[in-house]
UniProtKB/TrEMBL annotation:
GO terms (BP aspect): L-proline biosynthetic process
Lineage: Bacteria, Bacillati, Candidatus Sysuimicrobiota, Candidatus Sysuimicrobiia, Candidatus Sysuimicrobiales
Reactions performed catalytically: L-proline + NAD(+) = (S)-1-pyrroline-5-carboxylate + NADH + 2 H(+); L-proline + NADP(+) = (S)-1-pyrroline-5-carboxylate + NADPH + 2 H(+)
Record Gene3D superfamilies: NAD(P)-binding Rossmann-like Domain (3.40.50.720), ProC C-terminal domain-like (1.10.3730.10)
Homology family: Belongs to the pyrroline-5-carboxylate reductase family.
EC number: 1.5.1.2
Species of provenance: Candidatus Segetimicrobium genomatis
Record: residues binding NADP(+): 10-15, 73-76
Role, per record: Catalyzes the reduction of 1-pyrroline-5-carboxylate (PCA) to L-proline.
Protein name per its UniProtKB record: Pyrroline-5-carboxylate reductase
Amino acid sequence: MQVDRTIGFIGAGNMAEALLRGVFAAGVLRPAQCTVTNKNNDERLARLARAWAVRTTRDKALLMAESEVVILAVKPHDMPAVLSEIAPYTTARHLIVSVAAGVPCEAIEGCLGAAPVVRAMPNTSTAVRASATAIASGRLAGPDHLAIVRTLFEAVGWVGVVPESMLDVVTAVSGSGPAYIYVLAEALVDSGEQAGLPRDLARALVAQTILGAGKMLTETGEAPERLRERVTSPGGTTMAGLEALEQGGLRAAVRAAVTRAARRARELRSAPARTPAS
């Protein structure tokens, strides 16, 4: 489905480029619909213009005038300054989409007034169009706004709609989740090498194993515990390995990681963007 809106990207980093790559590949947007700006990196803007044929500008007033959907692809600590810059040009016709962790819709709405706001929490797998993204609406955003955001992010992976109150835990599970998987991958590769495998072979085996396990989860629809049971024969090698993981406290460590990451997301949220001075 094509989105028939003009889109402005504030922020020209990896997330913005991954979204551009995904929406163009999926046919959701055309380059002529997109305008990109950033804080102070003209070289980055020039590269995006060459790579994707999008319009670029350093003039946020111009971007706001030309854009119906505005994606705030900036770091949380940059959000107050960005909101202050665009507040004079924001109207009810704009849909504001934020990918900044820990900045609630209420804080953005407090700065921008009548514009509907939707938060999106993708992860770094956006770069390979395999993100897990949760979206949540602010008080002024309706089903049509959510549908637009859903279409944009489905171009780079899976999308689910959640209450905003769940986004801290979403951040801890799927936002930070790729890093947890990479730690497991590191440990498997290192262990395979120490046990005698060439490192390149161990890495290839681990990468394909993780890819295959993910496809089993997504394509069979079966619960992870059921899939685990299906590959665990009594007295076999997998059972022996799983017993070692349980003895090593794997589940407790994962629970601690999610709890701590969710707490950090709440801490970020406790310092919301300030309302611009009049």
